[in-house]
Structure formats: C-alpha cells, structure tokens
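Comment thread on ticket #2218

A.B. wrote:
> Attaching the input chain for the structure job we discussed in standup.
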Amino acid sequence: MAYMFLKKYGWDEENCIRVKECISSHRYLSSMQPTTIEAKILLDADKLDMTGAIGIGRVLLYQGFMKKSIYCKGEDSFLNEYRERLLKVYDSFYTEEAKEIASQRKELTHMFYQEILKDRALNDFSNITQYIGQ
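C.D. wrote:
> Ran it. Output below, let me know if you need it in another format.
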C-alpha cells in the first residue's frame, strides 16, 4: 500500500522499496529480518519502546486492561510476559546505539522482575495451613 502510494506521488523505485521494507520488517514478531539501515533503525526504535521503565509500564497497563494477573502462577501474567518476550528483546537489537540504550535499561527491568518474584513469595499463602495447625 505504501509502495503504491509513494509511486503515485513520484517517489523513485529505490526509495519506495526501502520504505516498503521498513514497514514489512518493523514488527518484533515478523519473520522478515531488516536488511537496510533504515529498517534496522525503525525496528530498533520499536523494540526500545518495550524496554526499561516505559516497557514495564506498558506491559502492566495492558495486563490491567486485559484483567490479567501481575504474578499469579500458571496464568498469563507480567512474569510470563517478561520471561517469554521482554527478556529476549534485549539481545535482538541491530544498531550499536540501540544495544547500548537497551543494555542500560535491562538492569532496571531485571531488578523489577526480581522484586515481583520476592513479593510473590512473601504473599504466597498456599501453605498457610502449616502455620494454623490444620
């Protein structure tokens, strides 16, 4: 669609193809890998939005909107989202600048995840019968 739109307004073939590739490969879960620097920058920018405090906030807001748990075992939760998606994004950047930014944000994200694990352990009442003498 973008390719045809740009061609219609007089863009040259090479730039139309570059824009088309950026759009086609910018999704994190896309099987198409970016090959141009423009596509790599766009994908890195998209993925950086998933990292650090902003990434945590976005996931928690979405989890709340979808009425999903932050840390319940066996559920679609923030902890699962972190392990299955957020943790992996830190190793998937293309540009050196994005790798550096992601590296700085990774520590915060990991600390937040560890704190939730600690809180979950403190709030685990599944074994309470041992304390009240069933």
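A.B. wrote:
> Thanks. Noting for the ticket: The chain has seven helices and no strands.
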